[in-house]
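Loading example: each entry is read as two labelled lines plus one structure line.
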Amino acid sequence: MTTRNSFVTVLAGAVMAVVPVIAHHSFSAEFDATKEIKATGKVTTLEWTNPHAWFHVDISEICEGPAESEKNKTWKCANASGAQPVDWAFELASPNGLMRLGWSRNSLKNGEVVTVEGTRAKDGSRKGNARSVVVNGKRLFAGSSQASTP
Amino acid sequence: MIEWPALLKLAVGIGVALSVVNVNAQWPLREDPGLPRDAKGTVRMDAPTPRTADGKPDFSGVWMRAESGPPKEGRGGGGGGGIDIPVERFPYDPKGPPVATFFEAGGNMAGGLPYTPWAAELRKARLAVNARDNPDAMCLPMGFLQFHQQPQPRMIVQTRTMILIEYEANSGIRHIYLDGRPLPPQGEPQPWWYGYSVGRWEGDTLVVETNNLRGAEDGPHDGWLDVNGSPYTRQARFTERIRRPTFGHLQIDLTVEDAKAYTKPWTVRVDQRILPGHELIEAICNENQQFRQRIKID
């Protein structure tokens, strides 16, 4: 890639990124912003649907973050090794917002190992709102509604 | 306007962060060769206002929200979607009306909006359940201020006799008639989610008046002006004064008259900036809407 092309790519990235993503439902009605989670496992499905895309992961390790107020920030992790992987579902932005962030309906393939960072559902079920997904060492931003809805 | 060194830093930073996923961008830009550009080929946001064949300002284009609020106080935007991107700022005009914020129409208004006791109670009740009845959560049309500040872009198509605003969010659509017809009497036709809008030119300002809106009396998802649920009622009358001072800048001053919800009329400002090369993306919100089932209220 020539220097000029790299620069164009960089600018295109900026232009795409500054189209902010999706405010849809009320984030706080469904998710708890104080319950940070980080989970690793294998993708089983990606539901490329409006108003939010969702994906399911067979989780092999799940970490719960410390409360915002705790100064000593340590994650508490539980490993599912030896046990059956556990199905979790994670919410993404809507397909239009994800497309502007560079996603497509093929961005997560079944069986791929991913690490998801986000926040947990309020009701304690195995659901989360994803902020980012690391797949093959690349971080995809998920267009979380956390910052844009009450 | 924009501070270029800062913008460049931002561009490089974000570009590096996202280039891995943007190499094969899923929605490529399609820039109009007729866009005003400087010698380096950059689109000139401060170029003169485009005009129609009959000399009126032409608002046509794809727009995203921006802001011109007082620095470090209320934010017009919010919602970087997991990326902390500042919303683009236009110069703050301390003589202008307070700049609305996405969550709060009165976010930059001293003392907030002049709610009547009825409206204050209703808003409190809406917030007590985390604004879950906001029409956006139901894929329904939003109030004008929430639409004007939605993070998703909107496209304006202007003809001599009407303006069409298509909102990518929830596939919203507004018609503004410019053919000189008067506003219809209240209740005729039956009030709509978007109300009935007519516009007239006062110099380079388009003055759009809207009545015949469904209001908060019509249901839990009706009459939401902003994300936090500032209400409006069936008797609301909105006046939008819309200008395009430069190629890149659209400015909307919205006045709300609604004696049931507010003790006096009030006006707030919303800014938008042009998005050269962008097109709207289909967003059929009701495809798989399960929010209310997931939070177990249906």
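Chain A touches chain B through 56 residues (CB under 8 Å).
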